[in-house]
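Section 5.1 Outputs to date
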Amino acid sequence: MPFTGKYYYHKGKGIYRCAGCGQELFHSDAKEASGMGWPSFWTPLAKEKVTLHVDTSHDMRRIEAVCSRCGGHLGHVFDDSQKPGKKHYCINSSALAFCGETGKKKRKSR
């Protein structure tokens, strides 16, 4: 359901990975407030991380986004972003796993 996913309101800094295989997909810096009800990004970490297909299910024509490594469904892509590239990757929270930025590893004190 829209506006109910774990990452819709999420503001943490870090990397969003594929929940299926762990491939890094999106950085939090590319997350945007779309108002659509799902986490939205204006670009993936690299173009080859997300594969796009035409989806004609539910009597609609949309562009489906899938993980390029495992083929897992991520969501859909629309051409309505205000950001560079004008793409709007509307991704299901259940398709993502978040890994926060941890910075440098702390050294153990002796």
